[in-house]
Amino acid sequence: MIKKNQKLKYKYDTLADALSIYVVDGSRFEEAIELDSNIFLVIGEDNYPTALEILDASKVLDVKKYSLKRINSIHLKMCIDNDKIIVECIFNFPIHSGEKIKSTNSTIINDMNLPNIETELAMV
Q1: Which residues, other chains included, contact 58 with Cβ-Cβ below 8 Å and sequence gap of 6+?
Q2: I need a labelling partner for 116 at 20 to 30 A (CA). Which of 37, 76, 87, 107 fits?
């Protein structure tokens, strides 16, 4: 199944150093799956991904907290099949001399039997 026409937004909590990237009008939180250390895929009550949470975001992405408050763009790609869950996220951050591109890539086993989905979401 390919999900389209969904909007992506983010929130950054400076004190907690936590970045939340979420689907606007996504279903309510049901469960979080750890993809990598400090990176979680949030699954909604409809069994579809609704958010990506990054704890210690400034360290994980190796950027200043200031840049996390002013992200230029985010491109999130998720592919779930019967065997695995693949999540790729590309960030464009402002820095004093221009911009910096960082990414996260995670693959785990789909042992939760999440439904097949392929989606690309962007915030620009």
Answers
A1: 17, 64, 65, 68
A2: 37
Angstrom distances, CA of residue 15 to CA of 34, 63, 84: 22, 15, 33
Give the neighbor-by-neighbor strand order of the sheet with 117-123.
98-109, 84-95, 73-80, 117-123
pTM of the model: 0.88
User: Could you tell me if residue 76 is inside a domain?
Assistant: yes
Angle at 49 between CA 101 and CA 27, to 5 degrees: 125
Residue with structure tokens 């469960």?
31
* Domain-located, residue 3: no
* Interval 4-60: pLDDT, tens: 556 889 999 999 999 999 987 766 778 999 999 999 999 988 888 889 999 999 999
